[in-house]
Amino acid sequence: MNLTLRCETLLEALSLHARAGRVVTFVADDDASVPMTYAEIERQARRLARALIAAGLARGEVVPMVLPTSAEFVVSFFGILMAGGTPSPLGLPAGFGDIDNFGRRTATICRFLKAKRIIVSPGLADAATSGVDVVAIVDPLGLEGPDDVVLPEITAEDVALVQCTSGSTGVPKGVVLTHTNVLANVHQVGLGVTAKDDDVVVAWLPLNHDMGLIGSLLFSIYWSLELILLSPVTFLRRPVSWLSAISRHRGTLSPAPNFAYAYVAARTKDADLAGLDLSSWRVAFCGAEPIAPHTMRTFQDRFAVAGLQPDVVLPCYGLAEACLAVTFRPVRAPLAADCLDRNLLAAGRAKFGDGGTGPVVNVVSCGSALPGTEVAVRDVDGGELPEMCVGRIVVRGPSIMREYLFDEVRTSETIDEDGWLATGDLGYLRDGELYVTGREKDVIILRGKNFVPSEFEWAAEQVPGVRRGNAVAFGVASPVLGTEMLVLACETEITDSVAREELKRRVVSHVMQETGIRPDTVHLVGKERLPKTTSGKLQRSRAKQAYVEEKPSQAWRLF
Amino acid sequence: MSDNTHTVRQLLAEVCALDPTSIKPDAPLIDYGLDSARAIDLIVGLEGAFAIRIPDEAAAKMKTLKDIVAYVEGRISP
Lengths: 559, 78
Description:
The structure holds two protein chains of two kinds. Chain A has 17 helices and 27 strands.
């Protein structure tokens, strides 16, 4: 299927949007709204572009950006593009005392990107440039280049963005996306939700993340929709500010990962509900992490009184290597989850549980491939599997990245010659809809059977004393037994040694009861001791590595 | 001990579920379990108690109780 895009580059999309007289509104901590026209953004971006070229920016040079959600961010992103450079938005520091770690993370990525300059908030410039030879640009709105600087022509196949993943340890990955990749994906998202001129996008997601940058900012520009932006800091400190923004601006489309729906439901006081009207909200995208049916029900129920319509949650599946989105459920479809026989799932078959005594597992449907994209499930040898068989999820379509930056080997391992991208995720198809059951590399193999760690983790988390969402399961090879042993590492705030032994016993018995498998070891660690990615996802492979190596470190003090 | 130190220590103790007397002015905050989730609660508490605004960027630079008190005292009206 050929997609007919509305324009060829992000710059063209910006121009069209500016000419339509559109505005972006930045909502401050105190709910005050600061509007800015896209015409003004385009004018300032052009000025920055001239200054960057005058300062020697080379065609294709990657320019990292460390900026909060702000006019500076939007202007810098487009200014770099107009100058012929490639923007790469990076994360901000989070939490008390994070400044040193932030500096190390940023320096590692700057070196990896071979960056010569970085656009950064004034207060973070020293930390961001310590130990790395880059020039800090702290006033992107104040720079001015000579009027006679000619801006280069940007084409559809030029690189629009490098999205860096991880980077706190090890080698960062840089996902290289062209204008066509990004435009195709935001076009598909618009088809998926039948975007209309009067849709209003409300977003608080960080703009250095695909869901915030591509799914909210660039999506709304491409479809010429009104956009209301809050900073993630505002949302985390006062989650009701998200709902207030939707209520006040009559928001219709707003995305968030699973955790945010639980967070806002738990932290919104009854008193705050009084003035809210959420009836305009028609699509609450939910992606970027596994979707818990329970969380979605709690969210829907909590805000029904504020006019939230039933079934606004729209589960999606995607990954940075495909820009953002791969599959969507239909708009306003009820949540669909398959209740499967656990033991057969472990053997690679998705068969419905009989509701009897056997262990079952609930897997949420992430919907079908967006128009123009194909999804398939393959076995280890690359053969396509029929529906209801669990295998490796592969994706092909116009939004698949061009490559990993400076890494031909990883690129060719990930994208085959026919253009299929190996997602690293496991799942199955049913009636053309995708059900994601886990990650390929995290699979635990016990006595020849494959197990998805999330099932053990889910069971362990049900035990009082284990911190919700903070249990990891992994297999550790036992040369004596010739198979893997199941280890569960769980965070707990219990410190008393007798109580801890009791907790371990309860975890073992509960996991056994729920899954039929007995954990060989339950390992208790303190709060926030399990390794996580910057976006808060648990890192099973790092937990496993630390466990096996018994090497406590500053970042990951397991013991 | 100044009143401000007392207030900050009480808030930190509450957020981390600790005995206030166990919190030392120069020890790394991370030793008290001040993770990023609790950091949000502490910032909201401090902002309410002292009627100031604390940007994330500023919080990122505070590593001890003493750092927080110094920041707060620099921001509140005398």
